[in-house]
Design goal:
Helix content: 55-70%
Low-confidence stretches: none
Distance between the termini: 38 Å
Shape: globular
Number of strands: 0
Radius of gyration: 16 Å
Mean pLDDT: 86
Number of domains: 2
Structural class: mainly alpha
Number of helices: 5
Strand content: under 5%
């Protein structure tokens, strides 16, 4: 079974991948990026698809419990939350480093002129690859 087919099969019971001929799978480039990072980390053996499906399902249930109306437009936000949980759980990074990186990207986004690509280097506090 191909890796993406295995992922889709593992997710189907708890968090099926949105699929539609009329609508692209990814609305924004960051969604494709977080999807690709997840696949790459799985291929490196960080987690199984069953672990991933459980983690993503938990992120979706937590969001729904917090009031997410589950209209499908927040799916990849849950995906990102699950990925952050998984890398922290597996000891790849910690909550503090994740928070620092999120803040850096936020600063970079605010410092980037409209229409230009958002790059981490645009963060006014960018220290060169940290």
């Amino acid at each position: 079974m191909k890796p993406l087919d295995a992922l889709a099969a593992a997710l189907e019971p708890v968090a099926p991948l949105p699929r539609s001929e009329a609508e692209p799978a990814f609305r924004e480039p960051w969604e494709a990026s977080v999807f690709a990072m997840t696949v790459a980390l799985h291929q490196r053996g960080l987690f199984t698809w069953s672990e991933w499906a459980e983690c993503l399902g938990g992120a979706i249930r937590a969001a729904q419990a917090a009031g997410d109306p589950d209209l499908g437009d927040t799916y990849y936000q849950h995906w990102l939350a699950a990925l952050e949980t998984m890398v922290a759980r597996k000891g790849v990074t910690g909550a503090e480093l994740l928070a620092q990186r999120k803040a850096a990207w936020d600063r970079a986004a605010h410092a980037t002129p409209h229409g230009q690509p958002i790059l981490l280097e645009n963060d006014p506090l960018f220290a060169g690859g940290t």
